[in-house]
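WARN retry 2 of 3 for item q-0093 after timeout on previous attempt; input resubmitted unchanged.
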Amino acid sequence: MSKETESPQEATPESTSTKPEFTCIREGSAPKLRDQTQLIHYAIGKSNDVDVIQLVSNTNNGLFSDELIRIESIQQCLSGRGDLATFTSRIFHPLFRKSSNNNAGFLGAVLKHEGILKTADKKQFKHQLAINPDDILMYLTAADIEDKSN
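OK item q-0093 returned
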């Protein structure tokens, strides 16, 4: 029996199990919330004209999902929270299809590093908004800004 292989020209998005197209605008590395000597690496870009963020890798242990998360979904998740409202990264769990417990915390670390969130009540796992939720998309897709967490 011979194995038939599909030529690249015959492959269609419906017939392949490849990841969605992703165009990177910029990449970054954020300190993890638990141990700031360890990093979570991420990319911000576009997929099918939708602004997305992706967790790419990390410097130590910790399973996570590398799925593309719509920045608009992050914005919706954070909308309606007052400037003084405190919350944990658990609010990000619904944004992920895969169920690794690290996903939400790693995304929280990235958003903190990007200056979207800040530490609340001097507790490393509690957050507050650092900017207006309406500005999140503009803030994350600004290609010329390296580290906004200062």
